[in-house]
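User: Hey, my collaborator sent me this sequence without any context and asked if I could get a structure. I don't really work with proteins. Can you help?
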Amino acid sequence: MFRMYGIKSVTMFDISRESGVSKKTVYEHFKDKEELVQEGMRFMLNGHEQHLEDFRQQSANAIEELLKEVKFMEDMGNTINPVMLYEMQKYHPAIWQEVEVFKKEHLVRAITTNLERGIQEGIYRNDLKLDIMAHMRLLQLETVFQPALFPATQFNMHEVIREITAHFLLGITTTKGRKVAAGYIRIEQD
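Assistant: No problem. I've predicted the 3D structure and written it out in structure-token form, which is a compact way to encode the shape of the chain:
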């Protein structure tokens, strides 16, 4: 409900009604709405971390892994109202800080690990500055979820993510990597 409607507009009564339990039962498990939001966000971040690990283990190569992560983020983005992110930053700064820590620690590490894997596989350039590229990639992904930069009235989120990802891949891949990438997404070969 928070992801769909935002945090502020959802009441504890709404949560109890949607869950099919009394408001008293909700308060037996969560002292207040802040704790409920925090636990919900932790659950979501833990799930994201598990998906990162699954993608790493279940992908044939670094490009497939990267594209699975992009698809996951795209799907997640479709279920999150930007109002929720805004409200979290404004009214729940401690929870937002956990999100920021997750991005800086877990996502940057996952991106770096993917870059290292691609280099070992010979599909990413071996002269990449990993720390710079990992932070740049995180910034690219964050940009997509900022409505002021890519307003929904002008841009399709899926197209933006795909274009940014293709641009990123073209910058980091070797000739071999571009051929591998072309098997997953449309990239013009020169």
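In plain terms: The chain has one domain: 2-182. You can pass these tokens on to your collaborator as they are.
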